[in-house]
Write a structure and sequence with these properties.
Order of helices and strands: EEEEEEEHEHEHEHHEHHEHHE
CATH architecture of one domain: 3-Layer(aba) Sandwich
Strand order of the largest sheet: 1-2-9-8-7-10-11-13-12
Mean pLDDT: 73
CATH superfamily of one domain: LmbE-like
Length: 328
């Protein structure tokens, strides 16, 4: 049964960010305060402006085992968080991590025969509902247009994302890899921005320590309890057992009604149709040695989990994802 959720939503600065006050039964979390102050918008190209940058202040920890138990997930569109990794996000949020979601777009091109501004408003509301289901700490939009991310000025996009990550101070960052999972150009662009932003920040005091890529679709279609082959993942990976959170994942997916999710029944009954594990490739790590087997958790601040493993050889990433000490 899906644990009950009590959640409310508060606007946190124009149309760019939302803050959550949410608690699951037994989570021991009552509220979080996120105060933001906007600065002027900057141009990013013809026909638009870069969204107003925001500044975090008065961050209040809530049910977190340490102030560094922070995960920031950077994706392209509403629904990427639920379909691709909803079980993992729900799991770590329930364990007390502060999980923040940054979306590059509002999915304006994702509803056929619908005006982009109207489609964006619909999908933003769906993303808000899904974040409440998953127990995420905040939802932030970079404000770019769906389908146009490959045309955005690279340095401006990376600058904007770097500022967001610097304010949130995650230990772990999760995004798309170079393949974009599905090959979607927006996914590929966001993964590139995030990797570059991570590389800028990892040497700063309090910077992130690990960067994970969502593994390809082939890696996630596994029988429960059977890790994918190392060559499928492409290197060391976190193999996350999300079995207890599949109903929550289904419910989050169902919030994206405009995308016609293929699970229309009760979450508890639909959960059996999903794979029990979600897989992430470790693309960057800031420890002296590559992780051994098993990796005990997505990051070390949370309790160890037996169902998270390092897959493949513990060698440095290849040329498209250099590790610590290599040219970035």
């Amino acid at each position: 049964m899906v644990p009950p959720i009590r959640a409310s939503l508060r606007r946190a600065g124009r149309r760019q960010s939302w803050e959550w006050v949410a608690a699951s039964k037994g989570a021991g979390c009552a509220a979080v305060a996120l105060g933001r102050a906007a600065v002027p918008a900057m141009p990013f190209g013809a026909g638009g402006t870069q969204p107003a940058r925001t500044r975090l202040k008065n961050y209040v920890s809530c049910g977190v085992t340490s102030m560094k138990d922070i995960i920031v997930v950077v994706l392209a569109h509403p629904d990427d968080e639920s379909f691709g990794m909803g079980g993992t996000l729900a799991k770590y949020a329930a364990q007390g991590a502060a999980v923040h979601l940054v979306l590059a777009t509002r999915g304006e091109a994702g509803i056929p025969s619908t005006d982009p501004s109207r489609a964006g408003a619909i999908r933003e509301a769906e993303a808000q509902a899904a974040c409440a289901v998953l127990g995420l700490r905040s939802l932030d939009f970079l404000g770019y247009l769906d389908g146009q991310l490959a045309q955005i000025d690279l340095e401006l996009a990376v600058d904007l994302l770097t500022s967001r990550l610097r304010l949130l101070q995650p230990e772990v960052v999760i995004t798309f890899g170079p393949d974009g999972v599905s090959g979607h150009p927006d996914h590929i662009a966001v993964g590139r921005w995030t990797t570059m932003a991570y590389d800028r920040l990892c040497t700063e005091p309090g910077g992130p320590r690990m960067l994970y890529y969502l593994a390809s679709s082939a890696a996630t279609q596994q029988v429960c309890g059977s890790p994918p082959a190392a060559e499928t993942v492409g290197g060391p990976a976190a193999f996350i057992d999300v079995s207890p959170y599949l109903s929550r994942k289904i419910l989050a997916m169902q919030q994206h009604r405009s995308q016609n999710p293929p699970y229309s029944g009760a979450p508890e009954s639909e959960a059996g149709r999903l794979a029990c594990h979600e897989v992430f490739r470790l693309a960057r790590w800031e420890d002296a040695e590559a992780p051994g087997e098993p990796v005990t958790a997505v990051f070390t601040g949370l309790k160890a989990e037996q169902n998270v493993h390092a897959l493949g050889s513990a060698t440095r990433p290849s040329e498209d994802q250099p590790g610590k000490g290599e040219a970035r």
